[in-house]
Amino acid sequence: MARTATKLRVLCYKSMRAPWARNDWILQVIDKLARRGKASSGCGALILVGTLLLSACGGGGSAQGPVATATSSNSGGSSPVSPSSMSSGSGASIPATFFAVNDTNPNDPPRLNYGTLGHAKLAWTAIEPSKGTFDFSFFDAYANIAPKDPDGTANVVLTLGMTPPWATADQSKCKTFGNGMVGCTVPPDHTQDWVNFITTLINHYNGTNAPHIKYYELWNEASTSIYWTGTPAQLAALAAAAYPIIKQDSHSLVISPSIVGDARSLTTDALTFLATYLQAGGAENSDLAAYHGYVAKKDVVPYPLPTAECTLADCTGSIITQVSNYRQLLDQNGMQGKPLASTEGSFRDVITDLDTAAAWVAQYYVLQASVFQTLNVQFVSWYSWATPGIGSLQAPGHTPNQAGVAYNQVYDWLVGAAFTAPCSNAGNIWTCNITRSSGYQAQIIWDSSQTCNSGICTTSDQATEGLYTQYRDLAGDPATAIVGNAVAVGLKPIILENQNP
């Protein structure tokens, strides 16, 4: 019965595209209908009534959310995710918001195409350096450079944890990071300190003092002791305290603590941690689940391609293996229908050849975009725009480097297009088919067995279907005509097209 009710709720929510869809009363009524098995017959009438009522009242409310109140109890469990905040469904086209980039300096915004801004500093330690003293200046500047929804909501991720040193007596669990941040890996001694911070945060980003924030991520890389040494249950308790406060702002969504590490099976330490967290109450207090899509630790040389099923101990799985396993685990632990998001990922600057780096970025985004609808991947965030040593896409002069140019080209290839199926391979040849309106058809293709080194990339000749008349590459050059139904295919993806987009 619970599984049926969940499906009915999803059906009803997906049909709600009007501005009033975020109205809490409407969503609560649909939830009640769903639990009684009546949502499929009732949501159509409810949508009509809701539209008429709220149109008569002047729409769906003001841009400023209600003032958050400090409470550490979660009386209502998981509330519905706003349909207007999610993008999925059969044949869904890739939105600009799928492309996200992490930045660390609001004075140097990414010179890239993106619809979501990934996280920067960890919010609690940066905003409240001492108890009751708040400094929002960095995050205000960061929210201001973020892309905005039509209602002004900043499409940005704010990651909340670690614990600031003043909030715990156990200073042995506190450390100073290379960027000067000091954070602690244990929960605060008093949950009320956490509650007070979350309340102050939500009241600040209320659409008047500062923009509403789209995504609040509970903790950074909680599956590793670098950032968390408490138990999954302790972390779930922090989520239960934060979720009802954050959800007082209807513009905001809560992302579960990000997970990083080996995801080659459901029984690895990383995924076991996530399962335990979700079972402890984390599932009902999350709107999305986060993973960090690194395919290996930085000491693995040569660094694996996104498609590689590396068997070394320090590898974590091909990117699609990781996403598939996360999806399966979420569906088994109370997060059916809720999206995934990669809030970090890159080649960590282990790859120094510029052509190989460009190929890596392109493959990474194309592969995950191809499961945007089938595995419900909401966005993928590249770490980072300009952080030295961590996948930088910036060249001298604050312009995109070759990998950054490739990222921009893939953005242009995919935004507004729909995948007909996830990418697939025949041996080393990978293909991904996309469509657009007006009869546009295209195929993205690459050969994972080819290499690039010092400006020279090997290729193999591949036959093409007769419908494709031109191709484009990652450099952004004008389209080249296909002659003789064959093209040279290398490590760097190209896109075959039957016409201009």
Structure notes:
By secondary structure, the chain is an alpha/beta fold. It has 11 helices and 23 strands. Strands 13, 14, 15, 16, 20, 21 and 23 form a 7-stranded antiparallel β-sheet that branches. Helix 9 (319-332) links the parallel strand 8 and strand 9 (340-344). Helix 1 packs parallel to helix 3. The longest helix has 18 residues, at 39-56. It is globular. The two termini are 46 Å apart. Residues 1-66 and 72-85 have low confidence and may be disordered.
Report, as a whole number of angstroms, the end-to-end distance.
46 Å
Low-confidence stretches: 1-66, 72-85
**Strand content bin:** 15-25%
Helix count, per DSSP?
A: 11
Overall shape: globular
In total, the number of strands is 23
Rg calculated over all Cα atoms: 23 Å
Oligomer: single chain
Biggest sheet record: 7 strands, antiparallel
Helix-residue proportion: 25-40%
SSE class = alpha/beta
Average residue pLDDT: 87
Sum up the structure in keywords.
501 residues; alpha/beta; 7-stranded antiparallel beta sheet; 5-stranded parallel beta sheet; 11 helices; disordered N terminus
